[in-house]
Amino acid sequence: MTRMRTRIAERLMHSKNSIAMLTSFNEINLGKVMALRKRLGEQFLKTHAVKLGFMSFFVKATCEALKRHPLVNASVDGGDIIYHGYQDISVAVSTDRGLVTPILRDAQNMSFAEIERNILDFAGRARKGGLTLEELQGGTFTITNGGVFGSLFSTPIVNPPQSAILGMHTIKQRAIVEDGQVIAAPMMYIAISYDHRVIDGKDAVLFLVDIKDQLENPERMLLGL
Fold this sequence. Notes:
Shape: globular
CATH architecture: 2-Layer Sandwich
Radius of gyration: 17 Å
Helix content: 25-40%
Number of helices: 7
CATH class: Alpha Beta
Largest sheet: 7 strands, mixed
Strand content: 25-35%
Number of strands: 11
């Protein structure tokens, strides 16, 4: 094993052996988000010189949900639980050497463009081994996107000392019932894995429902609702 692979293995085994981990699932109709990207994506690119992706929507929705569900935005420090009044979001980035999780510091204050620009920068430097140790340490909550590789469903592993992680998956056209009619919609399964020592099931589920509600009604996150 390389040093990086060894370190990843150590952290994963620590998470598996020290956390009472549980995973809950939901699904999101991303039709409105996709329509918004289609309608404004070209103008967004011209204005900000970066593409409007899905990650900025998920990061913004996560920050808003963490404000309303602060129990999910916690870290474990020995026998103490630390509840954070800010959202430092770790974003999983895949490289040839393994997965790294650089951090969007104070993501709650970032615009969509700033989020997209930072993630693009992280991804480029991560693949060249150019991330600093400071950019990888800390974080209060993690988002990982196995969907970019085609994953339909998974149970992400919590990144200690954090207490929860949100898993995104691939978008598939599926038949759903809306207003009594069967329609085809772009659906994504989402998952939250969490440390049950710190977070009760109710709080994790309500957090995930909040994410779903925001992304199915993206005007909510734009208005901070």
